[in-house]
Amino acid sequence: MADIVETLTDPLLIAGVLGAGACFATIVTIAAPSLAEDKLGSRLKEVAKKREELRKRSRAELAKGQGSLQHKNANSIAKSLVDSLNLQKALADDTLSEKLIRAGLRGHAAQTMFISIAPHCRSVSASPLSSTFSSSTPSSLST
User: Fold this and answer.
1) Distance of alpha carbon 80 from its chain centroid, rounded?
2) pLDDT by residue (tens digit) across 2-27?
3) H or E element, residue 23
4) What is the pLDDT of residues 105-136, one digit of tens each?
5) Helix axes 108-125, 76-85, angle to 10 degrees
6) pLDDT by residue (tens digit) across 64-102?
7) Could you give the maximum distance between any two Cα atoms of the chain, in Å?
8) Rounded Cα–Cα distance for residues 82 and 110 (Å)
9) Which residue in 117, 111, 113 sits closest to 93, CA to CA?
10) Which comes out higher in pLDDT, residue 137 or 48?
């Protein structure tokens, strides 16, 4: 029994076992990537199948007339509102287009959307609540 304990605590044996373990770990680390299966080819095939499926679906929608390559006119509601209420003439401002361009909004669609929303913004800012909050100051703060 004493021989087994002496053999297991021998520094040369411990160093040899640790060295052999390190060599094995190094070999496994280097060899693991070459043993792994390459999945790139199968992934590329899957992507190509999905792309072809999406292409067929979009062509079928175009053939049915459900979809289109151009965006739908998102300003149609605002344009009909501006035209029906004649807001273009009522809220026309010489510097409006210049101000919108400075703000980064270019084109007739931006101007139409602004004109259709502007009356609502003005009515909110001129509401009784906003004037109450802006003009009311606590009596303790006023001198």
Assistant:
1) 31
2) 888 888 889 999 999 999 999 999 99
3) helix 11-35
4) 777 777 777 777 776 666 555 545 444 444 44
5) 70
6) 876 555 555 656 777 777 777 777 776 667 777 788 788
7) 108
8) 12
9) 111
10) 48
Distances (CA, A) of 61 to 57, 71, 72, 108: 6, 14, 15, 30
Q: Name the token pair of 38.
A: 């390459």
Length of the chain in terms of residues written? 143
Report the C-alpha gap between 60 and 66 in whole angstroms: 9
Helix, strand, coil shares of the chain as percentages rounded to 5? 75, 0, 25
CA 119 to chain centre: 32
Return the number of other C-beta atoms located less than 10 Å from residue 17's C-beta. 11
Other beta carbons within 10 angstroms of residue 134's beta carbon come to 9
In angstroms, what CA-CA distances link 123 with 91, 92, 111, 115, 126? 14, 17, 19, 13, 5
Question: What is the C-alpha separation between 47 and 39, in angstroms, rounded?
Answer: 12
